[in-house]
Amino acid sequence: MLKCVNKQLVDFLPGGKFCNPENAENLAPTEFAHVTNLACEHHFGDLDSSQRRRPDAPMHHHSSVQLLKRNRQSMMNWLDQMPHDDRAKIIKTSCKGGRELREEHINNEREVVNEIHSEMNLVKTKTVRKTTRIQNQSESDEENYDIDITARLPQNEAFVISEYVIVAYNDNWYPGCVVELKNEKHAYVTFMTHCGNLKMTSS
Known about the structure:
Elements: H1 2-8, H2 24-27, H3 38-53, H4 59-69, H5 72-80, H6 84-152, E1 164-169, E2 172-181, E3 186-191, E4 198-201
Antiparallel strand pairs: 1-2, 2-3, 3-4
């Protein structure tokens, strides 16, 4: 516990840059600040509630509601104490500034949406390019494999009676001897191991 406190509050302990007590002049500008972060938690809760009630409302609406909600009483008291002319002038200026601020917020939201769409399209384009490259590489490998296998195959030659051949039968290779010719590509072969007769093609 002490180790954690010494590490996190080192600036506020004796010898730290914030260890000296502040005078009244320095504390006056921050006297409105809360001691805890409960105010921030309240703002987040209010924002979540506002977004749930009006999910289609822009962020300008939600932020405006949050700014007025927690300060409405003090703000109304401040306005009531002002002269009528000054109050009317402030309200008029606020209406004009509110429209400008709303337009600025809408433009910012559009920029964010456009940036998100651009990043998503870029990722999608990279994915399509990668998929196409992999497919092209796979097709090229298959084509090269077929060419390599075809090049290794023996050339078709006419059978000769009494010559020895090797026959691929089922899952094995068997030696055989040509006993009769049927045509240029077909012949009858007698297997030299225990197996039935097979009509074989030279291709």
